[in-house]
Amino acid sequence: MNDRILEIQKLYPRIYMACHVEHVKKRSSKGQISSRDAGILAHLEQGHFQSPKTLAKHLNIAASTLSEALHNMVALGFVSFKIDENDARQTKFSLTNDGAKAISQNSVLDANKIANMLARLSEEDQQKVIDGLKLFANATY
User: Fold this and answer.
1) Are 79 and 70 in contact (CB under 8 A)?
2) Which of 62, 72, 110, 112 has the most crowded Cβ, counting Cβ within 10 A?
3) pTM to 2 decimals?
């Protein structure tokens, strides 16, 4: 087994166990989001509009399933949309401030526990943590 793979397999559960919260949300509403919707929101960026076709492919879900979820989250104020400037038949989606709050409030990771762990690190090391997680998460695309 590759040592790096083993290291990730050892480290991720340590982080998860140190920071996770117990909750299960079944249906998205103003106060809570489903696990599926949380996963979709986590793949959207604020101020950067994404194609639902690309997102559906990445998430390995049907475009119709994603479309329904996105429109529900638009109605809840978690996601905004705009018409694609290159193709008026296409719509692109972006995370709103309320969507970012929903991610934070419904995350499986407790914000206070994360803050306590980050407080043990220098500013430089905190940024290294974020950069490393981004690098690894972006490798999924």
Assistant:
1) yes
2) 72
3) 0.75
Give tens-digit pLDDT for 1-14: 678 788 777 888 88
Give dist(CA 41, CA 104) in Å, integer: 11
In tens, the pLDDT along 12-42 reads 888 878 777 765 555 565 667 888 888 899 8
The C-alpha atoms of residue 139 and residue 141 are separated, in whole angstroms, by 5
Q: Which two tokens stand for residue 122?
A: 């220098």
CA-based nearest residue to 93, from 48, 36, 57: 48
Instruction: Tell me the three state secondary structure of residue 136.
Output: helix
Reported CATH class of domain 26-108: mainly alpha
Strands 79-83 and 91-95: antiparallel
Position 24 scores a pLDDT of: 52
Residue 30 C-alpha from the chain's centroid: 17
